[in-house]
Structures are given as C-alpha cells and as structure tokens.
Amino acid sequence: MAFVFMEGNEAVARGAMAAGCNFFAGYPITPATTIFNNMLQMLPPKGGTCIQGEDEIASMGYCIGASMAGKKVLTATSGPGISLYSEHISFAIGSEIPLVIANVQRLGPSTGSATRGADSDIQFMRWGSTSGAPVIVLAPKDAKDCLELTVHAFNFAEEFRCPVFIASNKEIGMTKESFDMDDLNLPPLVERTPYTGTGPYVPFAADPDKAPPFLPIGGKTLVRQTSSTHGPDGYITIDPRVIAEMQERLHTKLDAAMDRISLYEENMVPDTDTLVISYGITSRAVADAAAALTDRGRPVSTLSLKTLWPVPESLLLEKAKPFRRIVVIEMNLGQYVNEIKRVLCGKQVDFYGQMNGILIPPAKIMEAIENE
Amino acid sequence: MNSFLNTSRPPVFCPGCTHDRITKSLDAALVTLGIPDHKTVIVTDIGCSGLFDTFFNVHALHGVHGRALTYAAGLKLADPSLNVIVTMGDGGMGIGGAHVLAACRKNLDMTLIILNNFNFGMTGGQYSATTPSDAQVGSAFLNQAEIPMDICGVVESAGATYVSRISGHDDGLSDELVSAMQHKGFAVVETLGLCTGRYTKRNQLTPKVIDQMIAQRPSPGGVIAKNLRSEYGDRYRQLAQEKGKFPDPFVVKKQFDMPDARRHEVVILGSAGMRIVTAGDMVCFAGISGGLNVSIKNDYNITVLRGQSVSEILLSPDKIGYTGIESPTVVLALSDEGVARRQKIFAGLSPDTYVLKEASVAIPDTPAQVEEIDFKAIKIKKTDWALASLAVLAKHEIVLNKDMLVFALKSRFNEKVFNLSMETVEKIL
Ligand code: SF4
C-alpha cells in the first residue's frame, strides 16, 4: 500500500495534469484557490501556461482563446465565480469549445460563506447559461474521485466539445485525505478529433449526433469561431432549418452517448425495499448511514451518482425499478431531487436536505430513511 | 497576397461609415506586412466593429461584448507565433475596461484597434465612454451628466508600450497599422470615425472636425518610451522556465504496526501561529505510516494571523466516509480561542476520551479524562505546544508512538527544522 495524502483541490490539479491539461487561467476565490496554486506549481515545469486573470470573466476568456488554439484547458472557481463565468459558459456551449471548470461549491446565495460547504450550484451549473443547451456535470465524493473524474471531465470535454464541470464542494476541496494510488482507475485519454477530410474545412460540419472535428486557430487551415448563431461554416445564419439542426445537435451529441457519460457507484443489497440516492460528499455519509442501518437489521441499497448532468435517466429508471421507495439526500434544500421525481414519476420519492454550512451527519440520514 | 479581404463577404457598413475605410486600411496593412493568412487572427466582439473578422480571410474569433482581449490573450499565450489583431468599438472598450487595463499592464504582443465613433451604433446611438457631454445621443440627456474618457491617456498610464490616435480618414492609417503590428508588445491604435447611421445624423462631426479634435489632443505618437519593457509572453516563459521541478505527490508507505490501530477522532484546539495545521498533518502522516486511512479539516479565520485554529482529524482502519467529528477520542486544548470555537463538544465527550489541557487554558466541565500539562514550566514555547502535545500522545501511545512521530517529522521537515523539533519532542519523551 502506497498512500498519498492530499486535498480534493490538489487531486483535481493532479487529475488535470494526468489528462494532459496544458493551460489554466483562474481568479482566486475560496475554497477553489488551491487548485490555482497547485496548477501554478505543476504547469510551468511541464511547459504549460498558468495565468491569473484580471477577473473571472477574463479567466474564462483566456481559456476559450487557448482552447481554440488547441490547448487542453482548466479553470477553477466557486459559486460567485460561476455567476461571472456565465456569459462564457454560454459561448463555450454554443460554439463547442472544450473546457473543464472545477466548481468547488460553497454556501450561497451570493457571496454566502467562503469557507462553508454546500452543494449550492447543482441547478445553476446546468441552467446558468442562455439557450438551455446542455453541459456535463460530474460530482466527486472524495479526493480520489476528484483525480479520476477530472480525467473523465477532460475526456468528455474533448470528445463532445462542451464545458464539463467538476461539482466539487468545500468539504472535498479543502479536506486532505489519504488514498491508495494503486486503487486509482484512470480512463485512457481521449483527444478531440482532428479534421482529416480532403475538402475545405467547414468548422461546424458534423454528424447529427457528434461534435464537429477540430482544427486549431493558428494552424495551416483557416478557422472561424463565433459566439453568434452560426451555420456549419461558422458564419452568422438566420436560416431556421440550419439553426434548428445546430441547436438539436448540441443536445443529441450528449444524449447519444448517455450510457458512456453516466458514471455512478452502487451498493445493491438483496431484499431491500429502499434505494437511497445521493451524490458528492453526501454519499459518504449515506454509506455510513446504510452500514449502520444494516447493523440494526434494516438494510437499504444505495446509488451514488457521479454524473449529474445530463440526468442519467435510463440508469435511474433501471436502478430504481425494484424499489418501493426512493430517498434522496442532498446538501441543499432540494435541487436534484426534482430531477429524480421527474424521471421516477409515480414512485415514492422522499427527501432530506440541509443547508447550514455543515455536513449532513449519518444520524440525520438514518432518521430520514427510518421516518417514513 | 494582394488582399486578405473575403470576397464572398463584402463589408456591409452604412454608406459613409468610417469602419469601411478602416477595413480597407487594415487589409492594406496586412498586405504590406506580408504575414501568411494562417498566421493572423482577428478577434472581435459585439457591435459594428465586431463584423471585422468576417470580412477577412484569416483566422477569426468573434465573441462576447468587451471580452475580445481575453480570447486574444489566450490565443497569443497558446501560440506565440500568431499575429493577433483585436478590433473593438468605444462600446467594447467601455464594457471591457478591466481587460483593456490588464492587457496594457501585461504587454502581450498584440494590436488593439479601438474604432471610436463616439456612440453605440448598432443598438441605436446610445452614449458610450467616449461620447462628448454636449452630443445628441440615443440615451436622451444621460451623457450630459458625464465626461468622455481619453482612451490614449488611460492606456498610456496603464502601461501600453505603443499608443496612437489617428483619424479613420487619414491616408496614413494603413502605415500606422503596420507600425502598430510591427511593434513587439501591446499596441493600441485609437481611430476616430463617423457613424453615419446614428451619430452624424444629430451631431456635426466630419473628417475635418476629427482632424481638429486630434490637433487639440495630439496622438502620443506610437512607441511610449517610458513604458517599454519585455513582451509578456517572453517574460512569462522565461520566469516559468526558472521555476523548479514538478511537485510529485507525497507518498507514505505503511511501515509501523500500531497496537492501538482503531478509529480515532482527534481535535486540536489552538490559535493562529501555534502551528496547529502542521501538527494536524503530522498526526495524519503518522497515521498513514501505521497503515490507517486519514482525513483532516482545518478551521481558521480568513485573516490568518489571528483567531482560532482548529484541526479535526479522523484515523481509521476502514475507508473514511463522513468526515465530520462525531465522538472525539482525543482533544488537545491548547488555547482559549480554540476551546471557545468547540466549547459544545466537552460536555458530550466519553469517559474514554483523552483530553490534554495546557495549564493556562480553561475548558468546560467534561466527563473525559483530562491531563493537565504546564508546557511553559518545562520551557516549551507556545509555538511548539501543538508539537509537544503530539509527543505526549506518543508517550502514552495514543494514536501514535515515538517512531511514527519521528517518521512524520522527518517526512515533513528539512534537517534543520527536524532537529529543532526533536529538541521539543525530547523534552517530553
Ligand atoms: S451604425 Fe454606425 S458604426 Fe454601424 S455600420 Fe452604420 S455607420 Fe457604421
């Protein structure tokens, strides 16, 4: 056994380096700052670039420019920074610019509490942009997850050419813990598909369920990128058919790969009638609660979602099917539970949430499970 | 190449718009420079100046209002060989002011052309950061309550290494753009022009009036000698190269068998400056060396030099789930501030809990076993109390033993600090 000892934020940085990240721009904000600090230590020796933007908007702008020049980019912030990222998140979604955003969530609303955790931004990450086009959101539960999921995040960003969020939490980002490096399970790296066709490069020409092949700005072939509504050629269009196709493709490229995108952990116990669904840091207390309930002779099954967006609908339907009752636990007053209720329409879905700056203790979860 | 203009996308400005002349002058300048098309990128934002990228056959990136300089910086840092040109209007300059200032201070080798036509053309002639107070604009009287800003003055004081102001109708515009692009560093060219669609409908502005404006407030003339310095990318890469080696993760192997290898919850209650966080790390290193899983959370004030400093550590033979403290097995009470922060835990401690209390610290009533130690009496400085209390734990073989503590100190400290800390440890053990 060879244990490493690091906080979730360092693990995100190490995951990024393992994924081949070579550009970071960010603006200091508690509790995400140490991702920036770590990247500043790790990128220069590897020939990468690490920049402190003049603000969050600029940091995302630097990332967008660098990504369009072919770099694999990371930025990191917390809720108040996501607010400022919003215009560029929309840009990256609509114009298919790969980037990874680590959101080390803290208690909101607004400036809220810099050093208090909460899963504040679960809906905000998904919907905090114009148009409603989708993003991918991955939720780690510990430092090891931070490392692994960051590699997945880069893979997804490259393949689907969209922003991918790491929905971390102050309680993961700033908690140092040990884990066994030998347990790490890193996926093979995926790079954005380069355009290799023989005809002229049409920057947004793609199969209806895929992201377009990529060429960098600065390469031999001229590239057009625009935040405006564009056709495959990258020029503004008002053709309703072309617009509709582009809009639909932003959804379809993710929907078509849902099975691969949907990451999760489960502990299915035979002959249980209750499935407890959670994600992120909360799923650790859920596991403790489930173990304690087993000791008490009232076992439950658990499902810990690592991919929150797009909502893994078929996974939820399949996993929830055998159960009479679903209990959802969240470190907020109910954000993701609404998605689960929507998907599992007709099932009994109970909820417990807490938004007071501290972790939900296993005892509270046991109470929620036992008090039907 | 004799033109970089995109013949399939001819300019679509209002008749008489100065942007049209600037487009042609920029094309002439690119031809003079002779850089291959794929080595130039035009970065634009919103407004009529944001149409520029479509009129040229070079790389193009069109983005959000006022943010063009940020994409440009990302591109230039990623590919230093690019000739990066940014066009923005007085609107984009205003909304993206922070980026203009940052770009001036950085001095990346890029050229910013600010097409100042004194109003927001595209949205209906509203006033901008450069609209004269006496102009008639689409924002009713609002501009009368403000004064316009001097773009060249601002960018010069912000550190731009090349600054010039020129009429968009000046025959020398193309030459001016050539020298701006040839300048190695951040070059800002402010062009003054007519928005015939909006501004000149209600205001007497002609090329002649623009010439008068420039005569009154002459161009800084290009290179700003007092601002000259290394190009940002060059300087960045030089500094980055001098930076040390990649920090590999710190790996600890199991090397000790702890007789007391059960779950522990350790709370260290201290104050800023008492090296509480360091002591917490020591407990963790020791725990890992004993084959345990560990986690640690620290609670300290944002103003780091005063107030409480509290560490909460879990050690467990099993994987750690919930990382909160539920029933502490060890509490080190080293300062009143720290104790005050966790006052509530004392009454609920178990009789098995070991509490170490420094003689000067007061703690609430507790059923736990309390050992009081007067560190001051044995001449241990306050900054070493946390470390000394770990030595006390090692003496009792609670959580860690001497070998584990020595291992932890060795892993974390250089030789000098290690020897100093061992002096403290030896006073206890
Ligand atoms: S609105 Fe003004 S700036 Fe825009 S094209 Fe017309 S004249 Fe030029």
Give the ordered list of helices and strands of chain B: HEEHEHHEHEHEHHEHEEHEEEHEEHHH
Q: Briefly note the CATH topology name of the largest domain in chain B.
A: Rossmann fold
Low-confidence stretches of chain A: none
Provide the CATH superfamily of the largest domain in chain A. Thiamin diphosphate (ThDP)-binding fold, Pyr/PP domains
Label the CATH architecture of the largest domain in chain B: 3-Layer(aba) Sandwich
Proportion in β-strands of chain A: 15-25%
CATH topology-level name of the largest domain in chain A: Rossmann fold
Q: Mean pLDDT across all residues of chain B, rounded?
A: 95
Alpha-beta classification of chain B: alpha/beta
Cross-sheet strand order for the largest sheet of chain B:
2-1-3-4-6-5-7
Q: What is the number of beta strands of chain A?
A: 15
- The radius of gyration of chain B is 34 Å
Structural account:
Chain A has 372 residues and is α/β, with parallel strands linked by helices. Chain A folds into two domains: 261 residues, Thiamin diphosphate (ThDP)-binding fold, Pyr/PP domains (Rossmann fold, 3-Layer(aba) Sandwich), CATH 3.40.50; 106 residues, 3-Layer(aba) Sandwich (Rossmann fold), CATH 3.40.50.920. Chain A contains 13 helices and 15 strands. Chain B has 429 residues and is of the alpha/beta class. Chain B has 14 helices and 14 strands. In chain B, strands 2-1-3-4-6-5-7 form a seven-stranded mixed beta sheet, sandwiched between helices. Chain B has a six-stranded mixed beta sheet with strand order 10-11-9-12-13-14. In chain B, helix 1 packs across helix 6 and helix 4 packs across helix 5. Chain B is elongated, with a radius of gyration of 34 Å. Chain B starts with 17 loop residues before the first helix and ends with a helix. The model of chain B has no long low-confidence stretch (mean pLDDT 95). At the A-B interface, strand 1, strand 3, helix 3, helix 4 and strand 8 of A face strand 2, helix 2, helix 4, helix 9 and strand 8 of B. The structure holds iron/sulfur cluster. Iron/sulfur cluster binds next to loops of chain B.
